[in-house]
Amino acid sequence: MFRPDMNMNRLLRSCQRLTLPEFDKVQLLECIKKLLLVDERWIPSERGYSLYLRPTAIATQESLGVGPSNKAKIFVINCPVGPYYKTGFAAVSLSATSNYVRAWPGGTGDAKVGGNYAPGIRPQVEVAQKGYAQNLWLFGEEDYLTEVGTMNLFVFWKNAEGELELVTPPLDGTILPGVTRDSILSLAKTWGEFKVSEKKVTMPQLVQAIQEKRVVEMFGAGTAAIVSPIKNIFYKGKDWAIPLDPKDPSSQAGALTKKFADTIMGIQYGEIEHEWSVVVKP
Question: What is the DSSP string of the chain?
Fold first, then answer.
């Protein structure tokens, strides 16, 4: 399992946000380990395939009304899944969206809540009809970058001071604290090859950086894809091309995006020894 402790922490925080009864994180994780041993035959053996685990909590109080539930059911959905990119990376085009809002201050954007996802389906369908894979969610009059689809967003650029910098929006209550997001930040800080920042960036600032050729690459990050390279962003009537790999015109991902993907997958498959990889034993 990959960083199950962080998943337990986030599930508990999400339950607390919805005033669902709390649970013992250690006990739940032990239950999931037992479940994995029971369902071991469902775990794919090929590289790129995995058993997706989704612990879920729902209120089960026997009443109708709006208020804290005194009962909840926790269950775990297991599903074998194939590689997100079956034939290698496929960079995506995004539509910068400000007429819909994914999350807002004081809301549930930082919790793993089903209600965060259903409202994003219509905006995704609308941009798909225009040829874009996903929404790049903007927020506020300044058009702050927040998330891409259901993933965290990363920008690798030369900042205004000329420093190579990896930037992702800060956890201000509107951003989901993704496990992959945290893993990328931790790896980048460990490598020490460039500046790593959690800070607000506006779409106009990104456009200026594109015009000045300071953007190196961009990608989304999440459980399913690990990383998803970005090749284009539509904003205010214009498509803005995002660089991928200047050394390889045929590449569908930048060098840093590939490095994060290879490193995290290596840890997940036990090829790179790391504390994030938890082995379940009988």
Answer: -BSHHHHHHHHHHHHHHTTPPP--HHHHHHHHHHHHHHTGGGS--STT-EEEEEEEEEE--SS-SSS--S-EEEEEEEEEE--SSBTB---EEEEEE-SS-S--TTSSTTS--GGGTGGGHHHHHHHHTTT-SEEEEEETTTTEEEEETTEEEEEEEE-TTS-EEEEE---SSSS---HHHHHHHHHHHHHTSSEEEE---BHHHHHHHHHTT-EEEEEEEETTTEEEEEEEEEETTEEEE----TT-TT-SS-HHHHHHHHHHHHHHTTSS--TTB-----
Query: Cβ–Cβ contacts within 10 Å for residue 46, how many?
Result: 8
CA dist 282 and 269 (Å) reads 18
Q: Report yes or no: 73 and 45 within 8 Å, Cβ to Cβ.
A: no
For 177-186, the pLDDT digits (tens) are 999 999 999 9
* Opening angle at CA 11, ends 10 and 13, nearest 5: 65
pLDDT digits (tens, 9 = 90+) for 225-244: 999 999 999 999 999 999 99
**165 is written with which tokens?**
């910098």
pTM of structure: 0.96
